[in-house]
UniProtKB/TrEMBL annotation:
It comes from the Eukaryota. SUPFAM superfamilies: FAD/NAD(P)-binding domain (SSF51905). One of its GO terms (molecular function) is oxidoreductase activity. This is FAD/NAD(P)-binding domain-containing protein. InterPro entries: FAD/NAD-bd_sf, Zeta_carotene_desat/Oxidored. The lineage of its organism: Eukaryota, Fungi, Dikarya, Basidiomycota, Agaricomycotina.
Amino acid sequence: MSSASTDKTRVLIVGGGAAGISAAYAFSLHPDRFDVTLYERSSSPGGMATSTPIDKDKYGADYINDGVQGASPVFHNTYAIFERLGFNASDVGMQPGHRQVEYLDQHFLHFVLDDATHNFLRFGDDIKKFGKVLKVIKALEPLFALISVSAMLRMFRFSKEFGEVIVFPLVALFFGTGNQTPFISCAILERVFMDPNMRLFEYSAESFLASIPTMRAFPRLSTLYSAWKSLVEEQGQGSVRVINEREVTRVERSSAKKRGGVQVWSRSTGGTDNEQSVVDPGEEHQETFDELVICTDADAALTILGKDARWKERRILGNVKYLWDVTVTHNDLEYMEKYYRVQYDSCLRSMQDPDNVDKQKKFEFAEKHFSPLYFIRSYPNDKRKVEMSFDLTVYQPQFDGVSPEGIKPDSLSKGSDTASGIPLKEHVFQTIFLDNSPESVRFWSKDEINPDKVILQKWWKQQSHRWQHYAGTVPWMGLINGKVGASSGPSLYQDHKHMANRITPISPVHGPFSVELHSHRRVEQV
């Protein structure tokens, strides 16, 4: 296993997702000081950033990224790492679609906002008030960080429908919070509108969104992580080893700060299956390390620590709530057309200001370039609960012939208004059914997807992003990092936000470096 030298600190990193491989990368910058082993229980690094081969003759591309699609342009360090590895993301205009009766899009938002007679804006007053409330939240952010979105909407007397039709679906779709959206901190909502470093949306007092947000679609992530693994090991000059198909089962830490204070038990695996369970586990093997960096979700961290977990670790990590979602990647156009607005329909045009030249130009653009890549619908019996889908053929650049390494910097970026020539009936879709609790499963329509058109079904463990998470876990992580020979990577509290795990590549490590990579510019200078 590890081959440590006596004058180096022996470090074990548990987990090879975005956080773990970032920590390994940071350690590899100092091969003279650290001897590092990373154990990842699956067959490849990347965590949720996985790629799956598909039939190119049938679908127009030979792979999909099935776990992580892309990210906002604000995640500069992510793209800096991409560039360093020789990869690039592709810009894509983000057209979202609601369910059939309530479609939300830059060009059709007024359909939702008009009332039945098209004489006045249905949510006009709420939308204007929303802009003012965002300023209040920004001014009092520490207070509102502990207030949920649903509580904020009630506090400022927004209509119930405004939350259900506009706010909850929008945040669930673009922020990845799913059915937990009513319970997330409203300070997070404010930041995606107001914070210059986190902004996803441009607010409009008339149409809620002033423009189509730009996203970036990722290159082939399995290839990227393979390249990153190679870079880490090469840069580490033999002092860093990334080992797949090995699971850490338990650890014991000495309370005294001394070398060899971390005892670790691990076992070989045959990788993980589509339910995230270990395949063919082997016998346990014991090793000794000086330091431990845990880059797993909080549940897994507590399982690994077991009885060795201190009360602060149990309290802080145990506060994180997890849910299980399932993605169904499929080619069932009938299902998509039943529940979503997949094709252009002129009836969606707003009847207000028919002589407005600018608006008519937008309608013409929409008719020619209608190609939503995000879809969302609320369940009629509980509009707080949602189902989300993607058109991967529109979203992912390989369907336009872009190489697995991504679009070249001097090339035009892919946009959703330049959809591939692949017929709609051959498009690859992915539908996400959220939270397998009985309260949510009863609304699922997963069984309506034609089994013959299912390409892949996969389960994912997701954190809830409740406001309690930001009150009871995030501010207190420093109390358990670097204590008793252990540090915790950001996947403990950002486990399904792939891009966030790389905002600060050294964040899993408790201050061992003189050079910190806190921004894109700093990354480029290293």
